[in-house]
Amino acid sequence: MSLEENSLQPVDIEKIKMAVRLHTPIEITTYTLPRAMEFYIQDVMTEFLKYCHQQHMIDPLKFCLGELLTNSKKANTKRVYFQEKNLDINDEMQYNDGMISFKEDTLGNINHYLQLQKDEELYIKFILKVDDDNVLIQLKNKAILTKAEKRRINEKLKTAQKYSNVQEVLAKVIDQTEGAGLGIIIIILMLEKAGLSRDNFKIYSNDVETVTSILLPVNQEIHRGLNYINYAFVETCAQIPVRKESLRKMIELLSQPEVTKDQVLSLVSADVTLAAVLLKRSTEIRKGCCNLSTAIDLIGIENLSSIFNEANPVIKTDFEASSEEWKHAYDTAFYCYNLAKNTYGGTVDAEEAYTLGLFHDFTSVMRASVNQDKLDEIKEKALAKQFSPEAFDMFMYGGCKNECGQSITDKLGLPEKLGMVIRYHNCPWSAPEEIKKLSNIIYVADSIQYYKSGLIEYYQIEPSVLELMNIHSEADLQKIINEVESVM
Q1: CA angle, corner 469, sides to 463 and 474, nearest 5?
Q2: What is the crossing angle of helices 350-358 and 324-342, to 10°?
Q3: Cα–chain center distance at 170
C-alpha cells in the first residue's frame, strides 16, 4: 500500500477491493507512526470495512484503532527508552522506576526516541483480512509484553466488566503510572455497545511481538442475501456459454477429414467453456475425468461433432462478454501446468492441474455470460425478499464465488473434483487432503496473475503455500514468471 498526502489513491482503493474479493491480507508497516501514516491507516480501514459491508462499525473501530496505535507506538518507545537508561524493562522494580520519568523524558525529546525505534526496527504492523466468517483487524508491534504490562492489561479488562457505559469510566481516573489507563476499558465498552463481546478482543505476546486483534463476524444480513442470490444465479446456469467464434472454429476444425487429436486439444485447452462441454460429455462416460486429452479419447474424435454444434441444447451462444475471464482462466491454467511439473517431485498430474486451473474461476465466466435482464430479475427477487441491495453488489464483485462455482459445476454435471478445487483454490490450507496439492498449485498460479497485474503484492500471497512451491522470495516468484512467459 502507498502513502500520499494523507489520502487513498485509486490504486489503493482497487487493492483494497481486490483484497476483500480474494480474501488476501492487507498489511501496512511503520516504525515511527507519523500523523500522516495514522490518518492513512484509518482511511484504509474505513474503505476496507465499507467493502466488507461493516459500515456500522467504522466509527467505534476508528476510535479503537487510534487507541491501539498509540499504545503500540508507546510500547516500542518504552523499549528504546529503557535500553538507553540501562534499565531492565522486565525487572518490576526497574520498570516502576523507569516509568516515573518516561512520559516527561520522551515527550520532551520524542524525535530522538522515534529515530531509535526506527534504527532498532521496532515496527508497528497493521493487518486487515476477511474470510467467509470473520473480519480480522490486527496490530503487531515488536515488543513482548512484560509481566507488569500483562498484569495492568488484565486489570483493565477486569475493570471494564464493572462498567456499563463509557460515561461511567470517564468519571474516574485510573492508574496514573501508565497514564489515565482508560483506553482499553473504553475499547471493550465500545465493542460491547457495537454488539461484540470481550472474546472478540485479544492481546497476547509470542516470542517476538505483541499482537492485538479485533474479530468481527461477517455481516449476517448481507451473507444471507448473498446466499439467496447465489442460489438464484445457479438456477439460471442450465447451459454452458460458448463464444460464437470459439464454437465456429471448433465446428470448422471437426469438419476437416484429417483433423487430429492435437488440433482439437489445442482449441479446447485455450477455452474453458469448450473444455466444459467436453468434460460434461466425458463425465457421462466415465466419472471423475479431469484430463482433456483423456476426455477426447473417451468420446472419440469422430463423435465430437455431436456435442460441438449449435443444436446442442447444453450450449448457449446468445451472449456478449469480453474475453477477460477466458484469458485469465487460460493464463492461470498455463502456470498450473508449469508449477505441477516442477513441484512435489512430479507427483501431481500436470495435465489435470492444467484443466483444474482452467476452471478455477468458472463462476466469473458464467456470470459474464448472463445478460443484464436476467441479473436485474435476480436483484429484484432479492429486494422483494427484503435482502440488502449491498448483497447483490457483493455478488457482482465476486462474493462467495467459490461456493457458487461448486454448485454450478454440480448442476452442469461436470466432474466433482472441478467443484472441489473451485471451492478451495483461495484457501488451499482448508482443502481436503486429496486435493490439497492441486489447490496449492492453483492458488499460487491464480495469485501470480493478480500479482503480475499489480492488484496484489508479494506479501499478500500465503508464505506457507509459496514455500511448498519452493518460492522463498519475490525474486524466486519473478523468476518463475519470466520462465513461463518466455514459452507462452
Answers
A1: 55
A2: 160
A3: 39
| Whole-number Å distance between alpha carbons of 11 and 17 | 10
Closest residue by Cα to residue 444 from 458, 455, 423? 458
| The C-alpha cell that represents 101 in the structure block | 520519568
Q: How far apart are CA 271 and CA 323, in angstroms?
A: 10
- Nearest Cα to 357, choosing from 291, 441, 274, 275? 441
C-alpha of 298 from chain center: 38
Only one residue has cell 491507516, namely 41
Q: How high is the pLDDT of residue 176?
A: 45
Q: Dihedrals φ, ψ of 217, to 5°?
A: -65, 145
Residue 316 phi/psi, 5° resolution? -125, 140
Beta-carbon-side half-sphere exposure of residue 478 (alpha carbons within 13 Å): 6
Mapped onto helix, strand or coil, the DSSP state of residue 453 is coil
* Three-state secondary-structure class, residue 29: strand
* Residues 408/237, Cβ–Cβ less than 8 Å: yes
pLDDT of residue 181: 57
CA gap 352, 348 in Å, rounded = 8
Which amino acid is present at 437? K
Cell of 70: 498509540
Yes or no: say if 61 and 41 are a contact pair by the CB < 8 Å rule: no
Beta strands, E only, 100-143:
124-130, 134-141
Give 439's contacts (C-beta < 8 A, 6+ positions apart).
421, 424, 425, 428, 431
Sign of the torsion angle spanned by Cα atoms 145, 150, 154, 155: negative
* Residue with the three cell numbers 515488543: 143
Residue 49 buriedness (CB in 10 A; 0-12 / 13-18 / 19+): buried
Task: Retrieve residue 280's grid coordinates.
Answer: 460434461
pLDDT along the chain (488 residues), means of 10: 61 91 93 94 96 90 94 94 95 92 91 94 96 91 91 85 72 50 81 88 93 90 86 91 95 95 96 97 94 96 95 92 87 95 91 96 89 90 88 76 82 93 90 94 95 92 93 95 85
How far apart, in whole angstroms, are the C-alpha atoms of residue 23 and residue 135?
A: 10
Alpha carbons 419 and 417: distance in angstroms, whole number: 5
241, 273 contact by CB (below 8 A):
yes
Rg of the Cα atoms in the chain: 27
Closest CA to 484 of 322, 350, 326: 350
Cα(432)–Cα(258) distance, rounded to whole angstroms? 43
User: What is the CA 455 to chain-centroid distance, rounded?
Assistant: 12
Distance, in Å, from the CA atom of 272 to the CA atom of 356, rounded to the nearest integer, reads 10
Distance separating alpha carbons of residues 115 and 6, to the nearest angstrom: 22
